[in-house]
């Protein structure tokens, strides 16, 4: 008998756990005065590196679906980028993924301005704390390379 969920999970894991430039990354707002090297685990929404390459935090806000209204920029102080310390496993994420034009995988209700639709980067939601390695901080106006 064909197990659709098992096959969907296998296909999703193949898409998630690819090497550079498609490796899964976690983007978090940089907090001035913090030391992102002390962060050892991540969870929540991740994306593929290909969507970040050559982008500034300002462009990432629009692509990933973060608030970019003047004075409310979610990535006002830049971003901290993290690589996962191990491949994502079947029990580490929510099957189904999403694209940033569907915030949290749902059609946008037009109300939540903090999380507007993005321009379509692939995302997956980690539901487990995964080990991570800090890659770099990217200040506003600078590009991720």
Structure description:
It is a single chain. The protein has 145 residues and is an alpha+beta fold. It is built from two helices and five strands.
Name the features.
145 residues; 14% helix; globular; alpha+beta; 5-stranded antiparallel beta sheet
Summarize the model shown:
The protein is 14% helix and 27% strand. The protein is an alpha+beta fold and 145 residues long.
Total strands: the figure is: 5
Question: How many helices in DSSP terms?
Answer: 2
Shape: globular
> Uncertain spans, ≥5 residues at pLDDT below 50?
none
Instruction: Give the mean pLDDT.
Output: 92
In which range does the helix fraction lie?
A: 10-25%
Order of secondary-structure elements: HEEHEEE
Summed up, the domain count is: 1
State the end-to-end distance. Answer: 45 Å
Whole-angstrom Rg? 15 Å
Give a short account of the largest sheet.
Answer: 5 strands, antiparallel
Structural category: alpha+beta
Range of strand content: 25-35%
How are the secondary structure elements laid out?
Layout lengths: L3 H13 L7 E6 L11 E8 L8 H8 L14 E6 L13 E2 L22 E17 L7
Antiparallel strand pairs: 1-2, 1-3, 2-5, 3-5, 4-5
């Amino acid at each position: 008998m064909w197990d659709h969920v098992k096959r969907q999970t296998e296909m999703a894991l193949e898409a998630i756990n690819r090497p550079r430039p498609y490796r899964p990354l976690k983007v978090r707002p940089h907090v001035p005065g913090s030391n992102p090297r002390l962060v050892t685990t991540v969870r929540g929404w991740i994306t593929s590196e290909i969507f970040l390459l050559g982008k500034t935090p300002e462009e990432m806000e629009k692509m990933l679906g973060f608030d970019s209204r003047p004075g409310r920029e979610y990535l006002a102080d830049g971003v901290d980028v993290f690589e996962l310390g191990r491949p994502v496993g079947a029990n580490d994420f929510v099957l189904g993924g999403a694209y940033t034009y569907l915030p949290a995988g749902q059609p946008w209700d037009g109300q939540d301005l903090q999380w507007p639709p993005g321009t379509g980067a692939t995302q997956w939601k980690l539901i487990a704390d995964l080990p991570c390695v800090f890659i770099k901080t990217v200040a506003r106006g600078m590009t991720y390379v």
